[in-house]
Amino acid sequence: MRDTIDAVIGVVDDTATIIACSDLTKIGTTNEFVSLDLSDSHEIFIRDGYTYKPFGSRVTPDYAVFVEGVDENAAKYASIMAITLSNIKQYYDEKYDRNNFIKNVVLDNVLPGDIVIKARELHFNSEISRVVLLIRIVSANDISAYDVIQNLFPDKSKDFVFNITETDIVLVKEIKNTVDSKDLEKLARSIADTLSSEFYTRVNVGIGTVVVGVKDLARSFKEAQMALEVGKVFDTDRVIVSYDNLGIARLIYHLPTTLCETFLHEVFKRGSIESLDHETLFTIQRFFENNLNVSETSRKLFVHRNTLVYRLEKIKKLTGLDLREFDHAIIFKIALMVKKYLSANPVKF
């Protein structure tokens, strides 16, 4: 370009520092007036006898090219240089950018054999533990949740943040081997609380399992996705859902709906679950929460012990299941979860 264009040409970064120039003496110098213009838009502007054309993939330009002169030819040269360098930067990012590589791995866009080779090229430590968190925006305002999360995790050599949809943001977090599931839930909670309290953005966070290296990040991401989906079906009030804590809900979520319907018919063959009113279902829920303890449950419900026993007998007559017996309680608990799963209208198969 220097040999073709008979003028001083170069590139400035977002701080208006010259990082490349045909006049080598100018490299490293800064023009503070240019930085003010760079923050506005991607349009061509003129300053101090030079024509500038910002470029970059973000809303705020990453760089700008400049050409000595203020005429039409200078503007054309600047535009051509901006397009060329923008394409070069995009190619470089796709080939060498760590964030882009991690995104493709998480989305399962890289062949397993290529992951190892590429990770070696980018100097990824295969012994490092990482976890994927999926942050799903439930309600938001004009504040960019993506920018907030990026600012919460500024170390781009260890933590990676990227969008996959308008509402889903992925965080790939490097962690220590001593971190357990409770620590990860505290981390997720801090993200949700920050977005909620300071930026009035409500989110749910799904947490995958911890993996070592890079190749299993796609699995951790799918687990975070499943955690949110299962949490939505079985516990709509939970903001933080960890794959490790899904328990039997994860198993039910994978069952064919035809099998679930058959199971419900078998369990409630003596009486339909629809015959249980809201008060009865609430009593059952409290009974389970208090570990099938009649005295404790009656105390929490502010009812006489005999009243609770009467309600349990009523349930036994309707369903044939005595919730005071552990095996019957397990069957009833699973049946309620299956009913909730079917009520969410999953794909029939």
UniProtKB/TrEMBL annotation:
PANTHER family: CARBOHYDRATE DIACID REGULATOR (PTHR33744:SF15)
Family: Belongs to the CdaR family.
PucR C-terminal helix-turn-helix domain ranges (all copies): 283-337
Residue ranges of every copy of the CdaR GGDEF-like domain listed in the record: 114-230
Protein name listed in UniProt: Transcriptional regulator, CdaR family
